[in-house]
Each structure stands twice: as structure tokens, then as C-alpha cells.
Amino acid sequence: MKRGNTIKIIFAGMSLTAFLLGGCSSGNSDGGNSKAEAEKVNVVSADEVLNGPEIEVTFWHAMGGTNGEALNKIVEEFNSKNKGHIKVTAQFQGSYDDELNKLKSAQMAGQGPNVIQVYDIGTRYMLDSGWAVPVQAFIDADKWDKQQIEPNLLAYYEIDKKLYSMPFNSSTPLLYYNKDAFKEAGLDPENPPKTLEDIIAVSDKLKKKDSSGETVRYAYGMYTYGWWFEQLMAKELLPIYDNGNGRDAAPTKVVFDENGGGAKILKIWNRLIKEDVMPKYAMNSDDCTSAFANGKIAMTVGSTAGLASTLAAVGDKFELGTGYFPAVDKESKGGVSIGGASLWIMDNQDDKIERAAWEFIKFAASPEQQAFWNTKTGYFPITKGAYDQQLYKDNVAKYPQFEMAVKQLRESPAESKGGLCAIYTQARQIVETNITKMLNGEQSEEETLSAITKSINTAISDYNLAN
Q: Checking DSSP bridges between strand 215-221 and strand 208-209, what pairing results, if any?
């Protein structure tokens, strides 16, 4: 069997069991399977697929709505250019979590896709599974210059100087703020707060009450989301996990309880509620984003991928401003880590299908397609050349708020790139559950930190014991 697939089938069963137990893999940083190394892959020439009989490529993705429509346009254009030789069939699989769960079941049955879009926090799991063929093999064969990828995106996905997947849709968090509210409060509408400490300091100026004394506008809203916790850790330039934040090897425990980052973040997050900077309803994502769009909250945080929808929701109610995702305080010297997803080529024992899959991924990563993707979705272009495309320039001229996102990304140090863990989804849920309890006054900051630490570490330990 090709590239050690007997090993992969055995590992697939172990991985599914481990996923249900909810832990992190203890595989090696090269992906946990020596047969998945780039130098072990047989890469056929492009001519064999671009000039041969039609090859069908199945592509699983998690893009619904407007994003899904844009992705289908990219697929349609690729198929048109390669008619009779390569045909990509895009299949929507639901949410990122739904898609990854379906992949695990499909791999057990030998019915997985040829290309799959996996979210950033699924990177460690995909590395450890050994199910994918590293795109580095095709990069090396084609002498495709990976330095054309935005440096901070490359920093996140590159492991041991190898790319195992191609970044595709990437985002970072931003501060969104109401410029009209800033003007009304006597604040500089072109200089939003850069830290949570600063937000607390100006909160009384932005807060607005009606004649009965009821607060009709709060200063800030930050719904309970594990990604915000991770971003605040990145701003502190502190790791979440051991083993080089899960990049030198798969993590065995969290370290935010030891390095002070967790306690610092929980304390200021709790202050937002205690000092009436943020209403409790803003703990819910839908309520928070709706309140901001309707002027009931002066500032909030959200993904750059949501910029277009935020602009649409705000409409002409007020002028929307964008700023850097706020750090805890002025001592925070880090930047932001990316979110989004990348494209993986699955090992399906067919060299020509894998080469055809790479041809599609190259096309999707091209400057032209990335500029198109950005204008339709708000995700960053992953290749530098996309920023020179007229389509991109026209879109930024129309929506200058996006320039802040690019500036923030490029100024973020590589050390803020974020960690890797196979159970990131479960870890986020643990963080969110306990922060919600803290904000509701059900447990102290110390109890919250202890509960998060113990729960994640137990999940890691359970997995490692199972394997």
C-alpha cells in the first residue's frame, strides 16, 4: 500500500477514539507519521494532468452563504480553464466542526475527499493524523515560491520550515467602533483605544443614559469567545501550551496558569462587567453584534471576515471605525494571531489526483483569485501579489476600514502566531463555559483559572493515555 496506508488506517481508528475522548495528540511535530514527509511523496508532472483525460477532484469545504457563493465562483472558473482535464466538485459540509467530524468517519470508510478546507485550530489534528500529503512536496517540485505568502500567515502554517497545507481564508480580530459616538463624547474619532485599560478609562464618557437613568449606550461589548482569550495571550507574547506552544511537539499541558497570562486576562475581563463598562447581554455573540450595529454599544470586537457584514448591518446609522484588537494594557507588546482555514491535499493513493488537487490549490492561492475572494468575503488575501490587483485596490478605496486590518497583521510579530493543539475546539468551549460562570458571579477569577487549567489538562492526559 502507498506511503504506509496500513499504518494510517490503524491510526485513523485511534484518532477517532482519541477525538471522542477530547485530548491532544502526542505525535511528533513533523505530523506524527514519517510517511507523510514531503520528500516521501511522488509528484507527477503538471503535464500529466493538464493535458490528459479528465480527473475528478472532490473538495470539501465549510463556506456557506455569501462566502460559499464566492468559493463556488473560484471553482467554476478553475473548471472552465481546465475543462476536459480537471473537474473540481465543491461539496459544502456544514460548520468547520461538522466537516472535521465527517472527515474522521469518511477516513475510516476510505471515502474521504481529495481536498479539504480545515480551520486553523484543526492544524495540529491534521498533522498528527497522517492523512494528508504535505503541499510542501508540490511546492518543492514546482519551485513555487512560498515567500509570496503573507509572512504572518506563513508563520502560522509553516511547521519545521514545511507547509503541510495552503492558507486560503485568513482573518484576524479587529476593534469596531462608532465614530459618531466618539465625537459626541468628545473623543478623537481617529484614535480609538488600544487597550482594555484604555477602554475602561473612557467608558464613562461613552456611556449614555435616558431621562429615567437607564443606560441606553454602553462603552464596550466583548462576547464570550475562546478566540478572544487566545488573542489576548498573543498580545501578551505568552504561550498557551507547553512544547513551544504546541509547535515543537504536541502539547501536554497549558501554561497560561504558570506564566501569569491567564490570571491577567480574566481579571480585566471581569472588570468589564463589574465596572459596568459592558452589559451582561453582550456576553452573547448575536446580542452583542446586534447592539453594536444599533448604537447601543460604542465599541466591540469582531473578525476581519465580518467587516462586510458589519458595514451592511450598520448602514447609515453611524460611521464605522476600525482599530487594533485591544491588548490588556500598555505593557502588552504582542500582536494578533490569524484565524480562518487552509486547504489540505488528502492521501488517496493516486498521484495524478493529488497533482490535480495541487493545481486547484495553486489557482485558489493566486493573486487574482485571492483579490476576488477578499472583495467578496473580507478575508485577507494570502498572497502579497493580491494587494497589487486593481480589484483589491478599488475595494479598499470603497472600504478604507479594511486597511487597518492589513496594517495590524503586518505589524504583528511572528511570536504572536498562536499555538497548535488537536483539541482546540474543546479547549475553547472549556474557556467559554468558565468565563461565562465568572462573569455571572458564579465563581471567582482564581476558581475560573483553576477550572480551565484542570479541565484542559485532564483532556490532554486522557488522550495521551488512550494512545
A: antiparallel
Provide the pLDDT for residue 39. 66
* Nearest Cα residue to 117 out of 138, 141, 139, 91: 91
How many distinct helices (H) and strands (E) make up the chain? 20, 13
Q: Which three cell numbers stand for residue 47?
A: 503535464
**Could you tell me the CATH superfamily of domain 173-336+422-466?**
Periplasmic binding protein-like II (3.40.190.10)
Say if CB 360 and CB 80 are below 8 A apart. Answer: no
Residue-level pLDDT at 193: 98
Show the cell assigned to 412. 504583528
Helix (H, G, I), strand (E, B) or coil at 15: helix
Evaluate if pTM is beyond 0.85: yes
CA dist., res. 313 & res. 311, Å (int): 6
Residue intervals in the chain for CATH 3.40.190.10: 2-170+338-388, 173-336+422-466
Cα–Cα distance, 280 to 222 (Å, whole number): 10
Element (H, E) at 344: strand 339-346
Where do we find the cell 454599544? 297
For residue 458, what is its C-alpha cell?
485532564
**Phi and psi, residue 297, nearest 5°:** -135, 135
Query: What residues form DSSP beta bridges with 301?
Result: 175
Cα–Cα dist 386/368, whole Å: 6
> By the 8 A CB rule, do 421 and 234 touch?
no
Which residue do the cell numbers 487549567 mark?
453
CA 11 centroid distance within chain: 26
Asked if the 2-170+338-388 domain carries CATH number 2.30.30.40, the reply is no
pLDDT confidence band for 25 (50 / 70 / 90) = very low
Residue with cell string 479528465: 54
Residue with cell 478623537: 188
One DSSP character per residue, 43-66 reads: ---THHHHSSS-EEEEEEE---HH
Produce one character per residue of 406-436: b if its CB has 16 or more CB atoms within 10 Å, e if not: bebbeebeeebbbbbbbbbbbbbebbbbbbe
310: buried, middle or exposed (CB in 10 Å: 19+, 13-18, 0-12)? buried
Measured distance CA(339)–CA(76) in Å, rounded: 26
**Adjacent-strand bridge partners of 140:** none
Phi, psi angle pair for 456, to nearest 5°: -70, -45
Checking if the pLDDT of 31 tops 80, the result is no
pLDDT of residue 467: 66
CB atoms within 10 A of CB 143: 6
